[in-house]
Amino acid sequence: MTVALASPTPADIRLLCRDDKFRAPATANLCDGHVQANVIILPNKFAADFRALCARNPVPCPLLGETLPGDATVPARLAANADIRYDLPLYRTYVDGAYVEEKRDVAKEWKEDSVAFFIGCSYSFEAALTAQGLVPRHTELNRNVPMYRTKVPLAAAGVFGGNMVVSMRPYPLALLPLVRETTRPFVLAHGEPVAWGVEGARALGITDLDGTKPDFGDATEIREGEVAVYWGCGVTPQLSVMDSKIPGLVLSHAPGHMLVLDMLNKDVCV
Amino acid sequence: MTVALASPTPADIRLLCRDDKFRAPATANLCDGHVQANVIILPNKFAADFRALCARNPVPCPLLGETLPGDATVPARLAANADIRYDLPLYRTYVDGAYVEEKRDVAKEWKEDSVAFFIGCSYSFEAALTAQGLVPRHTELNRNVPMYRTKVPLAAAGVFGGNMVVSMRPYPLALLPLVRETTRPFVLAHGEPVAWGVEGARALGITDLDGTKPDFGDATEIREGEVAVYWGCGVTPQLSVMDSKIPGLVLSHAPGHMLVLDMLNKDVCV
Known about the structure:
By secondary structure, the first copy, chain A, is of the alpha+beta class.
């Protein structure tokens, strides 16, 4: 039996997940106005390094909050009565940096030294772009956003390093100032673009100038008079953690299956 | 007449500057234990973008504080009774991004819309390295630290962009973990290194692998078994501002002539 709820609240979504009744293909476009978070769960001995990674690279890794070690309660400031072991639609597990499987909950995998980190997501500023009539191309095409590994090294932090990942949305060059201004306030959701255009692509080390061969997500269309605009992407901290090959179990949300927070998009803005 | 003070306090140094009696070649090695700050003074209309540049790139641009617009008083948390128009030993002026001259004070240049920004400096962590017996090579050689423009783009912020500048200190590979650990706590003074070694140089786009041709500062010696270790550098925000060519007058400290703060090195640590 599938469940259809009209205008579900974030708490509704989390409870559907907890009862294993959530069956949408992803959390995108659910709960307008509310923040969704990328999730990474690590052993506590790597928590200080991960916290430093986020502090030193706040554009791709905007840290919204974290749990106490071994306590699966999401901070109330982010979501009320939320349990990170159950309240995501779909999780992924990794051992020694290698993907193992997807799971509906991580009750068995959550340990007494587990710490969950919550990272801001571009859905927050995409809502603002759409409200300005600047509908992201991948939304128009009903695809996933294209993402690229860049050659830009992160500021290393303990065991974590690697390169920045960016997401890309094409816009007419004349609208670039408005695009930048619209996403700039979202400081805990990647904020303004990091770079744009052919010169930006070169600085980032991106060679796919027509948007047809992204490293992650789906191809897009860059139309006449448009430039590729690049934002920091929340896949960055995930790749950094996986590439670090820290020993043991790491958990994350499955792509597109984010934690839906009570927190509002305006709460991640200056 | 030159003035020689035994063990001057930061307030002593600032008053010498104010009275135009400071004649040391630089502020390096003065007032052990106290923070020295890079200084940038901008028209207020660019202040929000500069603040964002620092927030988005905290490793090369650690913002310690700022004045109110038109009020030359340094925040008391940084230094008591300090006036940014007079209390540096030497200033530089720039118009439309082009260097004009060095001045002993900027009383005439300070405007009602001027805002001064104070940026952390590597002197703070160099003291900690030296205390660990990890004396920086340029200190041993009595030279300036070598610095490099990198190919790493900053996360753009309004009118400001450009690339990260790094400083370099060579260390034996075996001591790298201790070097990283020693500077890691200095989060408002560039913190741990961003990269190291040949692979790090490649990631940063640095081709001078033997330390003989830095872009700024002096050549150094990389000895047998040593690797180049790279830290974010406070020259980054200065270059970003100058390269942006914002219209009008910009002021900064002259190289090596920093603002000596009452703030202690431990105050820029986590």
